Amino acid sequence: MSKKLFMRGNEVIAEAAINAGCRFYAGYPITPQNEIPEYMSWRMSDVGGVFIQAESELAAINMVYGASAAGARAMTSSSSPGISLKQETISYLAGAELPAVIVNMQRGGPGLGNISGSQADYFQAVKGGGHGDYKMLVYAPYNLQELWDLTMLAFDKADEYRNPVMILGDGILGQMMEPFYQTPYTKPNLSEKTWALTGCKGRGPNVIKSLYMGEGELEFRNSILQEKYKKMRDKEVRFEAIGVEDAELIVVAFGIAARIALSAVKRLRKEGFKIGFFRPVTLYPFPEKELAALANADRRFITIELNAGQMVEDVRLAVNGKSEVLFYGRTGGAIMTPEEIYEELSASPRFQAGAAVLKS
Amino acid sequence: MEHNVLIAGFGGQGILFFGKLLAYSGMLEGKEVTWFPSYGAEVRGGTANCTVIISDDMIGSPIVRNPEILVVMNEASLNKFQPRLKKEGLLIFDSSLIKKPELRSDIHVADVPASEIAASIGNTKCANIVMLSALLAKAGIIKEESALKALEELTPPKRRKSLDINKDAITKGRKYIEDKKSKDN
């Protein structure tokens, strides 16, 4: 195993991108992700890549569109308000089938909000924040090891599906340091980018666009996209499940909230509570079949998020009425503590009901 | 076992590096560690703080509201964070910079004239390392050898001179606490 490194989360993302062959980065500053452009500004010149501090978020993502069309592995990053500004071009990237990696280190919202960590952009990321019927692969890392591994994976998946991929992190993950291993990058067997705009000497010209005005043309394009999204749903679901087999209550959480919840779940399991933990690593595609398989009338779910209740809707859709689904969340950049989750879970009606039976 | 430490002071005092050194030392001992800074509009002369957790187990949240150990290097930080220190917690402060502190009676306190000790070594900038060393001598948490190794690994080659000063600061910080203990006995 390689040596343990100790870096800030944002720097981990930037170095992982470089390691996976990203050679074009454009961005516009916003806290709490400024370490990404800062790192790229000196690191890109080491590897012969391009770093641009653009004049705006829109300019940055449109530069990424251009670099991607020319065949480069390209990335932009921002935080919630900045990601809102990028939505138009995310839709264009999806429509033109261009690979790109977009990093959102979420902060408190709505509006300019604050600079603390948050998970309130879940809907925006997984339901299509831009217009049109499109989907992105969305990865939700929960520690710095996953920031490293999933960022590299994001570039491969973007190329494989010719689709934008989002890393949905938050301010806490971006700012914190913890040890991680620099897992080596091995590029999978991907087909050549024969579609890229590389100069058409000796071949016919390539065209990259999302405008299809001909009769039935756009519906045909959409059917290709939907086919692709179905393939993602079949092949790309990632999740982690701990102790769910005998659980009376299953905690569902992603990203930083999952990490906070997990330490509470571990404590409760040690104390003998029948509690499980389910963490979607991909938010799109959502591990709906896996959750559905766990649902039954004797079991409750509780979703824990740093928002007012977003992923909980997808958990409810997945279990489809077979289990009750509860929710606990904090909003506006407030970060819950493991102790707070411990109190919340140990007071859950599931366990209180059990305790009442024991007493009687 | 889990320890958490909140370190606070002026921007420019090396507060964040102090925390990084502590966390890195824990990593060298094979522990789980996290480091989390205050971030945003921090500038030199403003306030800076960071939280370090060192644990045998996975760390759920890198954020700590009520730390068990608090290290402060200016008065503003003392006033801000002392009320948040856990009961029976340990407060270590730089007594060269905080002259007349108002202290809680339900906590343990160690005053260390870190800036004066640092000046006697020849560089007041190493006051943060004096404080780190005093923290280790007072609370354990990690071994001094690990801190020295971390210092070696985290100091870039072009700053070897500061490495020697910082090593000296580690010795002096520990000695101060040891001498004080023997005087008290």
Describe it.
- The complex is a heterodimer of chains A (360) and B (185).
- With 360 residues, chain A is an alpha/beta fold.
- Helices cover 42% and strands 19% of the residues of chain A.
- Chain A has two domains: 4-235, Rossmann fold (3-Layer(aba) Sandwich), CATH 3.40.50.970; 240-359, 3-Layer(aba) Sandwich (Rossmann fold).
- Chain A has helices at residues 9-19, 35-46, 57-69, 80-85, 87-95, 122-126, 144-161, 171-175, 217-235, 255-270, 288-294, 311-319, 338-346, 349-359, and strands spanning 4-8, 24-27, 50-53, 74-78, 100-106, 137-139, 164-170, 177-181, 239-242, 249-252, 275-280, 282-284, 300-305, 324-329.
- In chain A, the strands form three sheets. Chain A has a seven-stranded mixed β-sheet with strand order 3-2-4-5-7-6-12, with helices on both faces. A five-stranded mixed β-sheet of chain A has the order 9-11-10-13-14, sandwiched between helices. A two-stranded antiparallel ribbon of chain A has the order 1-8.
- In chain A, helix 1 packs parallel to helix 7 (144-161).
- The longest helix of chain A is centred in the middle third of the chain and has 19 residues, at 217-235.
- Residues 354-360 of chain A have low confidence and may be disordered.
- The longest helix of chain B has 25 residues, at 160-184.
- Chain B has helices at residues 15-28, 75-81, 114-121, 127-139, 144-154, 160-184, and strands at residues 2-10, 32-37, 47-55, 69-72, 90-94, 108-112.
- Chain B has a six-stranded mixed β-sheet, sandwiched between helices.
- The A-B interface holds A 4, 6, 31-32, 115, 171-172, 175-179, 256, 259-264, 266, 335-338 and B 20, 23-24, 27, 32-37, 39-40, 57-63, 65.
Instruction: Report mean pLDDT of chain A, rounded to a whole number.
Output: 95
The parts of chain A where pLDDT drops under 50 for at least 5 residues are 354-360
Q: Greatest interface and its residue counts?
A: A-B, 24 and 20 residues
Name the helix and strand elements of chain A from N-terminus to C-terminus, one letter apiece. Answer: EHEHEHEHHEHEHEHEHEEHEEHEHEHH
CATH superfamily (homologous) name of the largest domain in chain A: Thiamin diphosphate (ThDP)-binding fold, Pyr/PP domains
**Largest sheet: number of strands, sense, barrel closure of chain B:** 6 strands, mixed
Q: How many distinct folded domains of chain A?
A: 2
Principal-axes geometry of chain B comes out as globular
Strand order of the largest sheet of chain B: 2-3-1-4-5-6
Tally the structural domains of chain B: 1
- Supply the helix-strand structural class of chain B: alpha/beta
Strand content of chain A: 15-25%
The N- to C-terminal Cα distance of chain B equals 29 Å
Shape of chain A: globular
Question: What is the fold named in CATH at topology level of chain B?
Answer: Pyruvate-ferredoxin Oxidoreductase, domain 3
- CATH level 3 topology of the largest domain in chain A: Rossmann fold
Alpha-beta content class of chain A: alpha/beta
Q: Could you name the CATH homologous superfamily of chain B?
A: Pyruvate-ferredoxin oxidoreductase, PFOR, domain III
Helical proportion of chain A, percent range: 40-55%
| Chain oligomer state | heterodimer
